[in-house]
Amino acid sequence: MVSFPGPLPGLDPAWSRHVTATDADGVERRWHVLDTAADHAEGDPAFLGTMLCVHGNPTWSYVWRRFLSAARPGWRVIAVDQLGMGFSEDPRGSLAHPRTLAQRVEDLSRLTDALQLSGPVVAVGHDWGGIIASGWALRHRDQLAGLVLANTSVHHDFSSGLPTPLRPARALADLTCVRTPLFVRAATALSRPRLPRDVRDAFAAPYRYPADRRFVGQFVADIPAEPTHPSRPALEHIARGLTSLDVPVLLLRGPADPVFSEAHLRDLHARMPHADIHRYEGAGHLVTEDAPRTANDTWAWIAARVEDGEPSSGADTHRTPAEHGPAWSALLQRVRDTPDDLAVAQVADGRRMTFSELEADVAAVAAGLAAGGVTPGQRVALLVPPGIDLTVALYACWRVGAVVVVADAGLGLAGMRRALRGAGIDHVIGIAKGLAAVALLGVPGRRILVEGHSSAIGALVRRPHGYGPVRVAETLDDVRRRGGHAPAPALPAFDAEAAVLFTSGATGPAKGVLYRSDQIRAQAGHIKVLYGLTPADSFVAAFAPFALYGPAMGVGSVVPDMDVTAPSTLTAAGLADAIAAADATTVFASPASLRNVVATASALDAAQRASLARVRVAMSAGAPIPVSLLRKVQTVLPNAELHTPYGMTECLAVSDIDLAGLERAGTGNGVCVGTPLTGVEVSIAPLPRDPAEPDGLPTTAPDVTGEIIVRAAHVKDHYDQLWATQHASARDGGSHRTGDVGHLDPEGRLWVEGRRQHVIHTADGPLTPVALELAVLELSGVANAAAVGVGPVGTQALVVVVDTEASGPVLVGADLTAAVRESAAAVTRVPVAAVLRTSAFPVDVRHQSKVDRARLAHWAERVLSGGRVGAP
Amino acid sequence: MRVLVTGASGLLGGDVARALAARGDDVTVLQRRPSGLRLREVLGDITELDSLTRAVDGCDAVVHLAAKVNVTGSWEDYRRINVDGTEALLQACLGADVRRMVFVSSPSVAHAGRSLVGAGSGRADPERARGHYARSKAMAEQRALAADARGELAVVAVRPHIVWGPGDTQLVERIGRRARSGRLPVIGSGAPLVDTIYIDNAVDALVAALDRCDDARGQSLVVTNGEPRPIGEILAGWARATGAPAPTRHVPAVLARWAGSGVDAVTALRERLGHDLTSDPPITRFLAEQLSTAHWFDQRRTRQVLGWAPRVSLDEGFARMRRHYAHHPLT
């Protein structure tokens, strides 16, 4: 045993103490623990409880230092060094007969007896420590207040072998764990972002010599890989026990963990379905290191779930059943009223379905899915382009009560991989290309092939009775046939979980957003009312998400001949042909597709122009659209009211404005997005002058800049497996913090001034970027502009980055610099430090328009501190 | 208030002395050669206790600007003038009735050659300071603040970063001449953000420090215009203001540093051989680093403590400089 070395990065030496307790064998042992020793002694009325933290292998209590320093008032935190680990006494044992799991749980229980922990306890464990913490929790149910498990597992299918990184560690435990520091060093070396050297050294501090590492080896040897292993019964006992645990549970997950997989997380979730989950994208096995916010998030969770007794998902639970049945009741209404009207058409191959045909097909596929094992609450990934097949698959899933997961190609391949692997997929319905992609991305689930969408990569998919490396279980036609003579599934609950959609990922990893059935219904209802859609209308669905709402609104739709994953492939002629094919009165599109429609308008013939002139309403969604582009669209769609809604994946349609409204609003601080829809409450949480201070109280007072907060029936239910993000976004009593900043004007119109994380925190207070950018974009020769802050928050320098029509060095010339400063001076008194040029503006994959200002800011900071110029 | 200003023959020292006198303070100036200021004058070396004793006699306060500021020279010279000189002045002050001292320092006393992005002032540290000037000023600042800690004399260290203005022969005019003869390249991208301070603002800040000395005592405050700009833009602005063309030739930053190292070596050698270096060499490694990395500072504490804010913006400063050189062309 080595002695505690004193100060280490992030660790207060005052926490370090030794405690003597008898171990499982009745021998007195000296434990080393980190202990905040409570500001309030037990018995003090302000005392709330103890957090008991158990590390895994090969770490020590150091791994919990942030949990100690972030402790909430009233809580004591004790992080133990397990016997033989860290700076605790060595209880002997050998690699052949390692200290067993049962002994370790007993050891810990006797330690907590010696510490006389009598009040409520939240048990916390990481890695193998999670199993021991769970074992302790099950033996102390009377005082257990909560359980937090980070990258751990209580069950592994040992018949499939150990996780790869553990194989050499187990087989060569002596060599890799004891005689060399390989295992000890590997644990921290894999951390991303790379840990500072002094932190890596601190992790290795107790394990410098082979004698200190004996228990690192013993821990590995105690993995009960063999059926006869002495720790197998204890592990199985703990695994079974967790299924009956009813205290709040939080599962922290770093997905980039080569040892503990998604399957391990799903197993834990299946045992404790009430558990809250937070996934830290990019973090790995040492999730508390890779994502330091785990400490604050865990304390926020304890405050909400343990102290205040908030319900599980953090969502608004005051729900009332919808008055008119399920999300697809409008479809049933059309089947009764006008069964032979067009429901869905696709121009590319001329396929069409009436409402009665659609309903019959949805019913058959739903019955077939249910008979094939799709159960309510299961997750089904849909990888089918918008059109008839997607519509049928989607409504069939909803009818079964399954949750559809829609990860579009707009997330990029890496984004799709993260999204789909993390979503806990049970089934995949996809075209051949989609199924090949999920196989490549390692997405689990039973695969159902939608035929008739051929592509080169799809040739990899093995058709039933055919050949190919990617296996599929069956085709959608097989499902349909089976459904023809299967019973209809039971009607799911009115508020059953219905869909996981993904944010664009323009500002960090894409977040899964969960909607319930009644929320989808409310959303479709809003769109229908907003654009005055009636059964006499039908619309062109050139904007993918809205293609799905047709049946829910009871309105026919037509998918134009375009690649919906590339919005700019919609031509004016393509749009006209789609309008003609369905007698469409309405167009739903995106700025990118409308830009191309304008660009290709000269190729239109007279008949096509006549079709376009029939359009009554056109709507552009997905990204902000400049007024100048809307004016050009008006020349192509002369009789259309041109609308653009403001909303987000978490709340589609918050407000709406048309071109006339935009012209009336003129210029101001930001982009005017119109008045909130009926039933949508918008308020503003004022930005504090000092970013370290909390926001002001939400207000509807005019001309106050702050974060936009939305409350509406169609706000998302919660973020999927992102407990802390959900908790923070819904902290105003069930409403949604949009992450956008803006203000309401005296006429009640909402103006968006930018993303919250793009606010520039200058010495003169917060500055929002959009108004400044719009002013700079007015300058001739400027093709794109972004305002970013460089330097420490609170004293950031304002930098304008432009893309100019002519190329040149990174520092733009004196004339343009002066012009930018003059434009900026009209908007803000904060001086522009520099005007930089890049021809590589980073934009999101999905919309090709949301500028990644964080990346630009990072680049600007590099350039402006003398670093390499390169590309952002 | 009776105030002694040391180093009044320099641009900043002269302006501070004039500003104090203009508002009615009774000003004495101390320097080696006559300053031409119509103020009470004591001629003498900053290291001579006799002349210092005469100079501080009857003064309430001292603004200490006298220093060796070049980028070359022997350590002995820097130590004698900057460290011993400050020490002698402190002794003289403590021996008289002086209650306040504004010690004019430099941000370089706390920072090594790395990039400074919105940096705080930091503590003076001779170990980290680069170059003779910065190291000697760091030692001097430490001694001045140590004197403050003894209680009788209130000392505040004010660190202006790159003071400039019309008539600045040391920096602006040298840049202007180099630009005119095409010998002013842009180092690297020219993009690193650098804080500077227009002369009038620096004068205001020192006067404010003198007035707030009792509240600000013991602190080190960096003062800048609070408008960091790319170094290339600033150099071009100076060049144009003196009537010269803006530089267009770029030299890679690595090359400049390497050249600077070479110059450092040559200069050291020439000094060792007894050459008197009257003019500074074209580039030193220190200067190359200054010109190719960011140097800008957090001004919030400074402005709050001093109750001061710059009155002249950079652009207004450039305009004033243009007007000056339109009437007084560079020779």
From TrEMBL, chain A:
Keyword Hydrolase: yes
Species whose genome carries this gene: Tessaracoccus antarcticus
Record-given protein name: Alpha/beta fold hydrolase
Assigned protein family: Belongs to the ATP-dependent AMP-binding enzyme family.
UniProt KW keywords: Hydrolase, Ligase
Transmembrane segments: none
Stretches assigned to the AB hydrolase-1 domain: 50-291
Stretches assigned to the AMP-dependent synthetase/ligase domain: 333-715
TrEMBL record, chain B:
GO cellular component terms attached to this protein's record: cytoplasm
Residue span(s) of domain NAD-dependent epimerase/dehydratase: 3-218
Family annotation (Pfam families): Epimerase
Record InterPro entries: Epimerase_deHydtase, NAD(P)-bd_dom_sf, NAD(P)-dependent_oxidoreduct
Superkingdom of the organism of origin: Bacteria
GO molecular function annotations of the record: aldehyde dehydrogenase (NAD+) activity
Protein name: NAD-dependent epimerase/dehydratase family protein
Native species: Tessaracoccus antarcticus
